Amino acid sequence: MKNTNENNTTNDKGSNLMTLFLDFLKFGLFTFGGGWSIVAQMQKLYVEKRKVITSQELLDMTSVGRSLPGTMIGNIAVLFGYSQCGIPGALVCLFAMILPPFIVLLVVGTFYTTFKSNYWVAAAMGGIRCAVVPIILTAAFNMVKGAFKYPACYAVTIICVILYLAFDVSCVYLVILGAISGWLISLFYAHKEVSDDE
Predict the structure, then answer these.
(1) pLDDT at residue 2 in the model
(2) pLDDT at residue 4, rounded to an integer
(3) How far apart are CA 32 and CA 136, in angstroms?
(4) Which domain holds residue 120?
(5) Mean pLDDT by 10-residue block, N- to C-terminus, for the chain (198 residues)?
(6) Where would you tag: which of 7, 44, 85, 91 has the fewest CB atoms within 10 A of its CB?
(7) In terms of domains, do 6 and 23 share one?
(8) Longest dimension (CA), the chain
(9) Which residue, of 147, 167, 184, is where some domain finishes?
(10) Of 87, 61, 86, nearest in space to 75 by CA
């Protein structure tokens, strides 16, 4: 009986890893516009369709992935894969996502001069860039709904936008400011809830 359960667990894990591999292979192959458009596809697939994570969890992964060294979407792939299948999941998601662009870049690098001067390739890329904008905006809108747990979070966002655009403050400092602000805001509202209950 124990062996049967272990076999079922192994099969489920292998099935999950294969699903993750195929999902992230598709993200890497068919998603244009960088990390944010892949986040939009993750929102649609994992939050809205399969419901394996919440919008808040995806937002947390995005925030952490954005604040770590390296590419944002690579970090998010590792975090999501790890949340689903541990270290094997993290490795599978990362590998599957970078494999298609790696192969495409090898081909493009080989024939770079031909692609660079090709009118039809340039025209297609212009159209792709236009199509990616609404995908990114939709993902941002859906994630915003889960981002503002408390009214004070809106003030933090406005302050961070002003600091970034007007004073060119580094993203690292903004993430630290956001983390400290989030901690203080949550502490305040938790204390307030306790006081209200009394």
Answers:
(1) 46
(2) 45
(3) 10
(4) 2-147
(5) 49 80 92 80 92 91 86 93 95 95 86 74 77 76 72 90 92 88 89 74
(6) 7
(7) yes
(8) 73
(9) 147
(10) 61
How many CB atoms within 10 Å of residue 139? Answer: 23
In single-letter form, the type of residue at position 44 comes to: K
Whether residues 121 and 182 share a domain: the answer is no
Calpha distance 103→157 (Å, rounded): 39
b/e per residue 52-76 (b: at least 16 CB within 10 A): ebebebbbebbbebebeeeebbbbb
pTM: 0.66
Residue 152, CA distances (Å) to 4, 66, 144, 188, 194 in order = 52, 22, 14, 10, 18
**Per residue, what are the HEC states of 28-72?**
HHHCCCCHHHHHHHHHHHHHHHCCCCCHHHHHHHHHHHHHCCCCH
d(CA 191, CA 175): 24
Q: And the tokens for 158?
A: 């406005």
Enter the DSSP assignment of 94: H
Residue with tokens 């992964």: 61
Instruction: State the pLDDT at residue 50.
Output: 94
